[in-house]
Amino acid sequence: MHTVVERELELKLVLSPERSIPVPARLTYRTEDPYAVHVTFHIDSDFPVHWTFARDLLIEGVCRPCGQGDVRIRPAEMERRNVLCVALSSPDGDALLQVSSAAVAAWVERTLRLVPPGTETGRLGIDAALAELLAPLPADDLWLSDPWPSDESTDGEV
């Protein structure tokens, strides 16, 4: 059985040190994809934006700066509130977002209770998929028998 953990949040897109705009978003974690978190921005719009990155990155980012490249996360204090600063970079542009640390930490905690660190591989079903892939099929019996006569003649013919 697969489980989904979701949380809708309002992030702030930082336009300048003095100005930001609200961005509705949804955090999603799926047990069948245990290493990833999914974030959908502009959830009520015609063109939502989807990002996927490692759950470990978000777990670490709650406590200390981490990430490189496309996704970077760091905790900060803004106006006496603990927030996470999430920097996203793509060929289409860059964005700096802020979100409540407490809200994200509570959501991350739910995912950790569901799939503790180190148990993710067991959720992938790799063993079952491999067994199914390698299981013999009825047609395999044809290949296991020798459908061609031997090159060696038993009656002495050349």
Account of the 3D structure:
With 158 residues, the chain is of the alpha+beta class. The protein has 5 helices and 8 strands, in the order ββββαββββαααα. The chain has an 8-stranded antiparallel β-sheet with strand order 4-3-2-1-8-7-6-5, sandwiched between helices. A hairpin with a 2-residue loop joins β6 and β7. The termini are far apart. The mean pLDDT is 86.
Determine the number of helices (DSSP H or I, runs of at least 4 residues): 5
Strand content: 35-45%
Strand order of the largest sheet: 4-3-2-1-8-7-6-5
Unreliable residue stretches:
none
Overall geometry comes to: elongated
Query: Which percent range fits the helix content?
Result: 10-25%
Give the N-terminus to C-terminus distance in angstroms: 64 Å
Structural class: alpha+beta
> Taking Cα atoms only, what radius of gyration do you get, to the nearest Å?
26 Å
Q: What value does the average pLDDT take?
A: 86
**What order do the SSEs take from the amino end to the carboxyl end, as H and E?**
EEEEHEEEEHHHH
Q: How would a crystallographer describe the biggest sheet?
A: 8 strands, antiparallel
Count of individual beta strands = 8
Task: Outline the fold blueprint.
Elements: E1 4-16, E2 19-30, E3 36-41, E4 49-54, H1 55-61, E5 66-68, E6 71-78, E7 81-90, E8 93-100, H2 101-114, H3 120-123, H4 126-134, H5 140-144
Antiparallel strand pairs: 1-2, 1-8, 2-3, 3-4, 5-6, 6-7, 7-8
